[in-house]
Design goal:
CATH superfamily of chain A: Cytochrome-c3 Hydrogenase, chain B
Radius of gyration of chain B: 23 Å
Radius of gyration of chain A: 21 Å
Bound molecules: iron/sulfur cluster
Shape of chain A: globular
Number of strands of chain B: 11
Number of helices of chain B: 16
Order of helices and strands of chain B: HHEHHEHEEEEHEHEEHHHHHEEHHHH
Oligomer: heterodimer
CATH class of chain A: Mainly Alpha
CATH architecture of chain A: Orthogonal Bundle
Structural class of chain A: alpha+beta
Strand order of the largest sheet of chain B: 2-1-3-7-9
Low-confidence stretches of chain B: 302-356, 385-393, 398-411
Strand content of chain B: 5-15%
Mean pLDDT of chain B: 78
Strand content of chain A: 15-25%
Strand order of the largest sheet of chain A: 1-2-3
CATH topology of chain A: Cytochrome-c3 Hydrogenase, chain B
Shape of chain B: globular
Mean pLDDT of chain A: 93
Structural class of chain B: alpha/beta
Number of helices of chain A: 12
Number of strands of chain A: 16
Largest sheet of chain B: 5 strands, parallel
Largest interface: A-B, 86 and 84 residues
Distance between the termini of chain A: 43 Å
Number of domains of chain A: 1
Helix content of chain A: 25-40%
């Protein structure tokens, strides 16, 4: 019995430490530790509630627009305003472009080098002693596609900037819509880029993922986890408010059930925080860092839904919306993400068609003195929630619950592993390969700790 | 190879049609091909950050990030890109520091977390010991050839250091003794980074301002270059973000922000905040975000011994007393913390302010005075023609706006 450590896990965002116990060539236990604490929620205290969307984007530069959107939803509730129809659609367009960008980069920049031999130069060398299985021709072709994919991701960010002013960290989203206009020229500029990116995703992205799946068939059986999924949906329609991706809950790969966010709690037994309560719903969370806590091994708290650890992200959305239900594994996560990218390209085309050019993209408003609101949307990696309360134009409570917190949760107070810890169990590891297999499992979740490690507030 | 002068001209060109990075790529490629230059080995550390700067740098096209790597840098350690993980990656890092001492560049993204001796941010494990970002920066900096801070967090603490800053986030130059080249922005514009890197490779350290920012990109204010500037001069102000008119009254921090967004723009000339109706939030400033918040409130009245001066009357007073006198007076006031570092109504209690860089402040104040003088001279012309009662509407509006306290927006 030996515990082996990867720190840092590379090609993810921010410091993650993975410890695994290996027996007879298989992982039998796992611990995930996030190693950065910034305390962003505490920073929101006392600030102007109108600033939430711009400020909280700074939590994460990869999925910035998701934070802007969750914050603006919380603002809408707190201020008692709604976006104009064009405002909602334009916000959806900004978000769609950002997700497309994220998914392309996740696969072609971060995941690819787990399966494909990169060029013979740093940072692709040194290369892990892994079982690289692709024939040289296929390998080269995928590397070529990776170069093109990088350019398509750039183009997707250009589309985001058409209405978002810049990308990443857009600047135009406000509670009633966006500040940029829905002029014919801008709509056409977005449309042209979208067309180009859609074609590429359709032609190459999904195929490339499937190709890797062919050569790495075993990864359709590795990294299963609990099979508990949830989503709060995304892309609300301006008229009905109905979301293009539905919310829902799936327990152990079963039927889709309704989700009730009132069952969210966070526990901290194994996290570097002190709090006598030990578990709290997000609306009452507290964050007192305690780096000396003996049992703790992560800055991430352990969110649970009625005692259950839940997985979120594209595969969860695939299950809930009936788009992808092949199975639960490393490869299924990658394929579901690629397929979802195409679905989002097509949805964006629909949003574009719905917008009446030059119709008002926002409505001026004056926020009331006090208010509170909750903003829930799925982000690229899964479920994102913002809780805001303010009095006399100053924020009194702000809390963010992010996707990576759910997926990369440490153990809870009963010692139950988080979803990725569980997914690592049973993964075969080869001697001397530096735990490359564990890295593959971890990366299939698209981890991003920038957002995960500052749960908290008051 | 370009002469340095030609290079600067290229960087600062007012009529850019393709991104700077696009234009630099072939030049760099050729220089490397002729072996006039060598690629510097680079260690890229990511500390307390949101990864937004790496993502933004990914948005440089042609070269895209891969080409930047292949063409300009020898990227030895960058955990967003390293194929290796864990121990193997750390070994590459340690080897580079040892074998390339005095030669490698240390690039830092994100702020240094200093609370609890840096323990809020471990970044790798060596010989079974966790190493903090703080320790790594202090260990590697003395051996590096250049140290470059990329993004406002690495430069000045940035959003990671927003009040109350429990993690003790600081800019790199606050924790080491070696000089640091600061390339701020939240996130950086990719051109600012590729331009700075190119200059370092071809000609060494570029000319820097008082905050160690390359002057070729941060030498002018957003306001100096802004396309809405004429509307500012004409007194046409938006009363809500998104409207046409200068965005000053809805929070634009362009007058106090040094960066070239208006001419460089973002994502290949697609857009930039003011063009999109969104006020500049001053993300490239030291003190961002605290000194810029509330984002949608305009620059506040300055408390001076002359009484409250709003930004416009500031200029008027300057004219009355002589700009130099007021400038000197205010700078003294600033140093005495009467105006304070956070002269915007931020959320940080006023006492915890580190001393300001005098040169920089003088420059910012001078800029303001100069800008306001333009308005005053026009209003004087206005006064002269007033008798004729034939003022064009915008002029009349301008006078009304000029003497009205900023909070009341013109509808
Ligand atoms: S205040 Fe802002 S919008 Fe107005 S001219 Fe200056 S930079 Fe442009
Ligand atoms: S316009 Fe201002 S806020 Fe926007 S990116 Fe440039 S410096 Fe930052």
């Amino acid at each position: 019995m030996a515990v082996q450590t990867i720190f840092p896990v590379t090609r993810i965002h921010e410091p993650l430490r993975v410890d695994v116990e290996v027996q007879n060539g298989k992982i039998v236990d796992a611990w995930l530790g996030a190693h950065l604490f910034r305390g962003m929620e505490n920073m929101l205290q006392g600030r102007d509630p109108r600033d939430a969307a711009l400020f909280t984007q700074r939590i994460c530069g990869i999925c910035s627009s998701a934070h802007a959107i969750a914050a603006s939803m919380a603002q809408q509730q707190a201020f008692g305003v709604v976006p104009t129809p064009a405002g909602q659609l334009l916000t959806n367009l900004i978000f769609a472009a950002d997700i497309i960008q994220n998914n392309l980069r996740h696969f072609y920049v971060l995941v690819l080098y787990d399966y494909v031999k990169g060029p013979d130069m740093p940072p692709y060398t040194p290369r892990p002693q892994a079982d690289f299985r692709l024939p040289p021709k296929v390998n080269d072709e995928l590397l070529r596609h990776a170069q093109e994919a990088a350019l398509k991701a750039v183009r997707a960010h250009e589309a985001m900037a058409v209405f978002g002013a810049k990308a990443p960290l857009q600047q135009s989203i406000i509670p009633t819509g966006i500040t940029e206009r829905a002029s014919v020229e801008r709509l056409m500029a977005y449309s042209a880029i979208l067309q180009e990116v859609t074609d590429w995703v359709e032609k190459y992205f999904i195929n490339d993922v499937m190709t890797i799946g062919e050569y790495y068939q075993d990864y359709y059986h590795i990294g299963a986890g609990y099979g508990n999924f949830f989503s709060v949906g995304m892309f609300p329609s301006p008229v009905t408010g109905e979301r293009a991706f539905k919310p829902g809950l799936v327990v152990n790969k079963g039927q889709v059930e309704p989700l009730d966010v009132n069952y969210f709690v966070e526990e901290i037994r194994y996290s570097w925080y002190k709090d006598d309560a030990g578990r709290r719903p997000p609306a009452q969370g507290v964050t007192n860092p305690d780096a000396d806590k003996p049992e703790a091994y992560s800055w991430v708290k352990a969110p649970r839904y009625r005692e259950m650890p839940l997985e979120c992200g594209p595969l969860a959305r695939g299950f809930i919306n009936g788009d992808y239900r092949r199975g639960v594994s490393v490869m299924d996560r990658l394929v579901a993400r690629a397929q979802e990218t195409l679905k989002i390209c097509k949805l964006a085309q629909g949003f574009l068609n719905e917008i009446v050019p030059n119709s008002p993209s926002y409505q001026p408003y004056t926020p009331p003195d006090a208010g509170s609101g909750v903003g829930l949307t799925d982000a690229m990696r899964g479920v994102l929630g913002h809780w805001m309360e303010y009095k006399r134009n100053k924020v009194t409570h702000y809390q963010v619950l992010t996707p990576t917190t759910w997926n990369f949760s440490p153990r809870d107070s009963r010692g139950i592993r988080g979803p990725v810890e569980q997914a690592l169990i049973g993964t075969p590891v080869a001697e001397g390969a530096g735990l490359v297999e564990a890295g593959r499992v971890v990366r299939s979740f698209d981890p991003c700790f920038t957002c995960a490690v500052h749960m908290l507030e008051k | 190879m370009l002469t340095r002068r030609e290079f600067l001209k290229l960087c600062m060109s007012a009529v850019l049609t393709t991104s700077l990075t696009d234009q630099l790529a072939p030049i760099m490629r050729q220089a490397f091909a002729e072996s006039k230059l060598t690629k510097p080995p680079v260690i890229w550390l990511e500390l307390g950050s949101c990864t937004g700067n790496s993502i933004s740098l990914d948005n440089a096209v042609n070269p895209n990030l891969n080409q930047v790597l292949a063409d300009m840098l020898d990227m030895r350690y960058n955990w967003l890109l390293n194929a290796a993980q864990g121990q193997q990656a750390v070994q590459a890092l340690v080897d580079t520091v040892e074998k390339e001492a005095g030669n490698f560049w240390l690039v830092v993204e994100g702020s240094v977390m200093t609370a609890d001796n840096g323990r809020y941010n471990n970044i790798f494990m060596r010989d079974n010991q966790m190493v903090t970002g703080l320790a790594a920066v202090r260990e590697f900096a003395p051996k590096a050839k250049y140290i470059v801070a990329v993004g406002t967090c690495a430069c000045f603490g940035g959003p990671s250091a927003a009040y109350p800053n429990q993690g003790g986030a600081k800019g790199v130059w606050e924790v080491i003794k070696q000089p640091v080249i600061n390339v701020p922005g939240c996130p950086i514009n990719p051109d600012w980074v590729t331009g700075t890197f190119s200059h370092l490779i071809m000609y060494g350290i570029p000319e820097l301002d008082g905050y160690n920012r390359p002057k070729m990109f941060f030498g002018q204010t957003i306001h100096d270059l802004c396309q809405r500037r004429q509307q500012f001069e004409d007194g046409i102000f938006a009363s809500f973000p998104g409207e046409s008119g200068c965005l000053f009254k809805v929070g634009c921090k362009g007058p106090v922000t040094h960066a070239d967004c208006p001419k460089r723009q973002w994502n290949h000339y697609v857009n930039w905040p003011v063009k999109a109706g969104a006020p500049c939030i001053g993300c490239a400033n030291p003190g961002f975000p605290d000194s810029s918040m509330p984002f949608y409130n305009h620059l506040p009245d300055l408390q001076t011994p002359l009484g409250a001066l709003n930004v416009k009357k500031f200029g008027l007073a300057a004219a009355g007393l002589g700009a130099a006198a007021v400038g000197a007076h205010l700078v003294t006031g600033v140093v005495a913390k009467r105006v304070g570092k956070n002269w915007l109504d931020g959320t940080v209690p006023k006492e915890s302010e580190p001393p300001e860089n005098l040169e920089q402040l003088k420059q910012e104040l001078d800029d303001l005075i100069r800008q306001q003088n333009a308005l005053i001279s026009e209003s004087k012309t206005l006064a002269r023609v007033k008798a004729k009662r034939k003022l064009p509407k915008t002029f009349r509006q301008k006078v009304v706006d000029f003497f009205r306290p900023g909070q009341k927006h013109r509808r």
